[in-house]
Amino acid sequence: MCAIAPSNATPKRYSSLGYASSLVSRFFDKNFTKKNNMNNISTANLSQSETNQYTNMTEYYDLWVTSGYYDYQLMAKDANLTIGDGCKILELGVGTGLLAEKYLEVDPSCEFTGVDFTASLLEIAQKRLGEKVKLIEADAVTMNLNQKFDVAISNGGVWGVLDLGDQDQWEFGGHVSGVAKNLQGLKNLATHLKKDGLMLLHLQKPHNDYDKPLAGGITYCQSIQKIEETSEYRTLQKNYLFKREQEILAQEQITITCFTAETSQRILSEAGFSLQGTSKNDKFAIYQKV
After folding, report:
1. How far apart are CA 116 and CA 279, in angstroms?
2. Which of 254, 229, 266 is nearest to 24 (CA)?
3. Residue 156 has what pLDDT?
4. Rg, the chain, Cα only
């Protein structure tokens, strides 16, 4: 039975903490929903002003994230320990379906929906997951899925928490800048959750510059640059590059906005979320709709 109350959460309450972030994808408008001719991916007319930031690296995405960047099996088990079996789950930033795949192995009885902004990643997810998961190309800020979920999970694809050590130093990061738009997105997510529904945000270590060898003689390189800092947030540029010897195979740039503690607490509170603690293995920060 789905246990939407976070009874398995490590009981850490942070009245002074509350970082709201914005890792927001492109999402869903029910008035423009149509069926993609390829597979069963629901799609929408996306804002022309938004850039689809992962298309250039689709071919190398799985090779990179399965090289030790994430432990999807452990994350799936940790999420399930928190929420229980048989839940109706919404994954924000489902990507190529790697977390969804592992979660379904842990709990085949769940009802799983995944949304993402990159159609090419969703096509891979469709091949991986078949009919087990409903996949939607959509926008978290304005999505209208016409249903409510027990739990929303983000593995950094929409929202994520940077674990900087002390709990009052945790930061939320995101792809969309601006307090107003992030507040809109969080409020919109809250409308898609049932009463007392949960939001699980992946706890991540800070992103640093490094190179990592992958299979096939490919090297993955990432670098981080701070490009702006204000009283409410700082903005980082994350550069991705895949190369073989001196040949650049693919590259991408992503902008991440990290909000201050004070600003984040206000956004989360106004959006209707309360921090409950962390999952048993500290893979997720757990928030509850209040």
Report:
1. 24
2. 254
3. 82
4. 18
Joined together, the tokens standing for residue 200 give 């699980």
pLDDT digit string (tens) for 106-146? 999 999 999 988 889 999 999 999 999 999 999 888 889 99
- What are the residue ranges in the chain where pLDDT is below 50? 7, 11-39, 44-52
Q: What is the 3-state secondary structure (H, E, C) of 63-122?
A: HHHHHHHCCHHHHHHHHHHHHCCCCEEEEECCCCCHHHHHHHHHCCCCEEEEEECCHHHH
Which amino acid belongs to residue 99? L
Helix (H, G, I), strand (E, B) or coil at 276: strand
- This prediction's pTM: 0.84
According to DSSP, residue 156 is labeled S
What are the DSSP calls for 113-146, one per residue?
EEEES-HHHHHHHHHHHTTSEEEEE-BTTT---S
